[in-house]
Design goal:
The chain has 122 residues and is mainly alpha-helical. Helices cover 34% and strands 7% of the residues. It has a two-stranded antiparallel ribbon with strand order 1-2.
Length: 122
């Protein structure tokens, strides 16, 4: 018997967190302070390879201040990213005669967000 659309049976109920994920997170948080101290020890140890020290510093900073924002810029590294859609086309082909011209075409020469002009050809 098919399940009616929008109804769920079984599985975790809405709003109930994943129990295993919660347990793992709680366990990891117990080691949080020691882990940060270990990363700082690696970062400050001049006998460690430079790559390990940089990586440790990065992790400490990410934990303390959050990851740095990644800028998204347009062409040339300046301004917003600009995109334009020049043509949207839907072609319906007659399955009995696939070599014939299209039955209907939806095309937009200049796409405007949320709008498209209809052009029909026979």
């Amino acid at each position: 018997m098919p399940v009616p659309k929008g109804q769920r049976y079984g599985g975790r109920q809405k709003g109930v967190s994943n129990k295993i994920g919660r347990e793992v997170r709680e366990l990891a948080q117990k080691f949080g302070p020691a882990s940060i101290k270990g990363l700082i020890d690696i970062a400050q140890d001049e006998n460690e390879p430079t790559a390990a020290r940089v990586s440790a510093y990065k992790e400490v900073l990410d934990r303390g201040y959050g990851e740095s924002a990644q800028p998204v810029t347009g062409e040339g590294g300046e301004g917003p990213v600009e995109m334009s859609v020049t043509k949207i086309e839907r072609v319906i082909i007659d399955p009995k005669n696939p070599d014939a011209e299209s039955v209907s075409t939806l095309a937009a020469a200049e796409a405007v967000p949320g709008r498209a002009r209809r052009a029909r050809s026979s």
